Write the structure tokens for this entry.
Amino acid sequence: MSDAPDSGAPLLEVTDLVKHFPIKRGILIDREVDQVRAVDGVSFRVQQGETLGLVGESGSGKSTVCRAVLQLIKPTSGSIKFEGQEIAGLGRRQMRPLRREMQMIFQDPYASLNPRKRIGQIVGDPLKRQGVASGSELRRQVQELLQRVGLSSEHYNRFPHEFSGGQRQRIGIARAISLKPKLVICDEPVSALDVSIQAQIVNLLDDLQDEFGLAYLFVAHDIGVVRHISDRIAVMNEGKIVEQGTADQVCESPQDEYTKKLLAAVPIPDPRESRERHSGSVQ
Amino acid sequence: MSSAPLLSVAGLRVGFATEDGIIQAVDGVSFDLQPGEVLAIVGESGSGKSVTAQTMLGLTRANNARIEGSVALAGEDLTAASDEEMRRLRGERIAMVFQDPMTSFNPVYRIGSQIVEAIRAHRPDTSKGQAEERVVELFEAVGIPNAEQRVDDYPHEFSGGMRQRAMIAMALALEPEVLIADEPTTALDVTIQAQILDLLGDLNRERNLATILITHDLGVVAEVADRVLVMYAGKVVEEGTLDEIFYDPQHPYTWGLLGSLTRIDRPRPHRLPQIAGSPPSLLDLPEGCPFRPRCPHEFSKCSQYPGLEARVPDSPSHRDRCWLGPEEKREKRLVEGQIGLEAPRQGQQA
């Protein structure tokens, strides 16, 4: 999928990423008694315009990886390179120009939009803060974005509570793509949505990728959705990537035991196949 | 159909008066349930599936609620039962397992003692020691290891899956005839989900429990259900056996639900078939079929809402609410060879 001119250098390159959270005991003096190894030596690459799916169960460390990539938390060690530039350990100020290039879509569309702000403000805020547009030009760009994600420009002056979960997720997507980033990190973007809406959002993300050449780091626990949207998949378990490969490779011929177990547990919406699967395991 | 059903819900309607008008959350739901049967109620948020279940347990009784129709358990109408009678029935004859195992236990009491309390509230002559023994037995039955130690743990010491097992143990404590499970695996990881579904299946077989499974996940339905009700905007739009719903679905909404599933056992389609638009507001339902604004197959007749009728020849138990003829349906539900809903027509909301 990568048709970048300098296709050698990946857009994002994470090497030996480690994030340990200390467990502290004591009243006056905090002693570190142990560590939670949330992310324990994770390496992967995302090429321009491609989607890397990160799957794993709760506690596997996938959200911690996302937050470390965006420097929302400081990694314990390891390297995170964006377009060849080391960003691990950069401060807020140094990160600011990079934030134009990497954006995030969150899981809960109810919690990720400020209820007191109008949609126009929410979507336009990144443009304004980065000094991309202001005044009537800002308004025009925001309205264009709203239309692009399947909303209407009349929604500009509305508040988040007037929208359904799916529409809110569209608003979050409009905000994330407003600065035309190169990388969008999607942390469980459809898992809070109804089934009939999930497919709409997945298709929208697909379309936007084609149109803007976005790369996605797509994190989800739903392997079906991840497989649909991803070019490559990395499977995480207990802070480590246990298997990495193309989406079809990982799903059709998994190599790792944990991946096999995970895939075998996915319910198949086909009663006949499900009965066949179970008749094998009945004593 | 063979013998008198254990549970019979007839013409159930539940409305809530709000400042903006009356919300008819459940609008004429009827079904029968036999011992040992698993009935799945499928729908999206706002379809009325959870309100249906809660009403069976008398949990929707409120000043602004209006409940019509009947819920008969072995002939006794639960909608007419007093609060006192309902309290006795709950747990004893119908028990419920909720979605969120995090919030279903009181965090400041030990799990075992919460179940002991439930047992002794219903069976006052059970001694504390007997009840505690019973809890250990139940923990073993639902597959909690080290049952004897774990009964003394607090809820936060249990993982999500173990907490859901404990929840099921509590539901089974008084040996109910009907178990209602409302999204019992939605909050769990897939590997744990598979274990809990196996457990529910085993219990259903071993104890001849009549089970109502409420879920939005058709994958879960395919694993455990015998019969399926598909709900949309407070009404049942299709009901049938598991195979009828999956292999011969009659309602375009069911096609859409089946089509939009991602399947890891099939080559992935270029594009996920989607259902356009979003579920309607219950305060402002469209005239006629409520699915009409989202349906690419709607035609003039859809301005009237069809009744829930058997429209497939020779399948009296397979009923739906769609005006299209069986032949038309067979043709229209195929999108690139698979069951699904076509892309919306021009002018329809995307």
Remarks:
- Strands of chain A lie at 12-25, 31-46, 51-55, 77-82, 85-86, 102-105, 183-187, 215-220, 232-237, 240-246.
